Amino acid sequence: MPTLRIPTAPVFRPLLEPARYKGAYGGRGSGKSHFFGELMVERCLVSPGTLAVCIREVQKSLLQSSKRLIESKIQSLGVGARFQVLHDRIVTPGDGLIIFQGMQDSTAESIKSLEGFDIAWVEEAQTLSARSLSLLRQKKPDNAVVVNANWRDNPWFPAVLEEERRLDLQLYPERYPHVWEGEYAKAFEGAYFARHLEQARQEGRICRVAVDPILPVKAFFDIGGAGHSSDAMAIWIAQFVGREIRLLDYIEGV
User: pTM of whole model > 0.85?
Assistant: First the structure.
């Protein structure tokens, strides 16, 4: 077989080392899905007879699966003659197989039927329920290789996504860190203080500050309300130091 050369972003190179569990997390545009799609094709070529299942929590149709991405990688890598793309699966070299499955409709018995499969690729893993995760594995693995990949780690980050990223940063600062930087969702879109906090972060005004032992520490309560329209209550801890208002998230000894 001719040598297969697949350009790989440096951030993903640790995932090329042998490990039973491999994972990548981060924001949009990092190329995570493209990397694992190429890795899947490479594995099927190098190890004929590979059995793999591509998993999502919810998969109502194959349009929601990784099938189209894998098909595009097979063609772009010029190895289409080695694979047979069927309606609901892909036959790989050596009578191997790639299938696509939604976990929401799976049972313990259907998962047991996958015994002997070599690879389980979980896409959009942040939506995986605790039930689905327990069906796949019981405990957190120690022998795992995990990388954090974001848009800036992608050498092929396209101009169209860069334009969209900048637009989100300008218009939707409350969702930007979650969508593009892979951070936990800290604010809902439209949250009152989200824009002010994002502006403070960009200006470097969010940092560690010392508590002045002489000045009083004040607590401000934002009551979440009551009834079906209520939201979470927030408590702001602050000190007034000169012309500055210092918001604190931790006060030792208080």
Answer: no
